[in-house]
Prior knowledge:
Layout: E1 3-7, E2 10-15, H1 32-59, E3 65-69, E4 78-82, H2 96-127, H3 133-137, H4 152-164, H5 180-199, H6 205-232, H7 236-246, H8 251-282, E5 305-310, H9 313-330, E6 336-337, H10 339-342, H11 349-354, E7 356-363, H12 371-382, E8 387-392, H13 402-417, H14 421-427
Helix pairs in contact: 1-2, 1-4, 2-4, 5-6, 6-7, 6-8, 13-14
Amino acid sequence: SPHSSRRSGCEVSLSSPRSLSRPNRPRKPWWHKPLRRSIFATIVIFYLALPVVSRGLFVGASIRCLEFRLDDDPKGETVRYLEDNVGVKCGSDEAIEPVFWTFFVLWPVLVPLAFFLLVLHVRRSVRSRRPSMLANSTAFLWRDYNAPFIYWEIVDLLRKLFLTTFVFFVDENNGNARLLRLVVAVFISALYLTVLALMRPFKRSDDLYLACMSNFLLIRCFTSGIVIKLCDESGAFVDYSCAYYTGLPGSYEATVLVGVLSITMLVVAVLVVAMNIATASANPTIRLVSSGCEPALELSEGCEHDGFVSHVWSTGQDQAATIVRRLQMLLPGICLWLDIENMQSVASLESAVGGSSVFIVFLSQGYFKSRNCRRELYAAHAASKPVIAVRETEQAKGALSVQGLWTEGREGCAFEAGGGGPADAVLR
């Protein structure tokens, strides 16, 4: 039976008669859900472990050896030991290097490449909003981003890998004692922050603000590291460098400055995030009771729009446009067909109805008298589309009583439908 509610001068009714219901979809195999969860868990584990494992390859300094002379002769015999463990001798055949490069290819190279290939494979189903089983399994990699930026997680992953792994290739021999790595890290972070602010790849604005703030904090950490590096060591020359380049008299003052800046930036970041969360919560959106999250809108097979909004121009054009705008605000990402925005030709009305998941009809005076409105109604009836009926209830805006709509529907549809079948289905 239909369910109805009344608010703001309109009455809404969801009709689900047997003649308009969809055929039942085939049940998925029993192994479909466990497989999807297994793929999802595997992706998450590899994603979280990738930066840690990749950095461990370099932190261990596996291919770095220190050379020692066995005598005072500059041309005498030498022996080489691992930098982090001088008890381990580096063989003359450098047998450890193939092992390092093997793991390097397996983790920092192949894992991001595998993620990229997965997103590349599911891009069409994601952009068409008909996600397949594999697309749902890999949703961790793309669900937070707008359709043109579904690869952004891979870009962000490469940034993390560079800052935790590839940066060790910069000044390999003396990088820990010099500033070049920190300068490169600041440049990469600032470049990424600029691109992030310009491209705005996230669906939710609060995710964008959080990402920008975290990258700004990261830049502050790297710049603070430069200050500490200049002022950390003791000695007259270093003290002079600290005072000359930073304006601070010594390492103690540099440490205090970095600490104050860190606390200040952290407080500012928390306040900004809290303000954005409060602002976002003040904007009404439709959320699922089970999870508290916005529903993931998926298009039905063969559909291009979530809903087709049918109305008569004379008494329903403004109200239909308001319904569309309101739904777009409550359900970000919803795609609705509205004639004033989407219609290219009157001849394409039937195909537009067939390409929509739901038929939304705004009932006002003159709806059933309009030939094009009847065409849309017949097309929805023929395609067994679920119908959401919205009835105008204010007389000044073209309202008709339920009895008036029954009369108009049967009179307007009688000639073409032999008794008003589609109208009966809508007005039940």
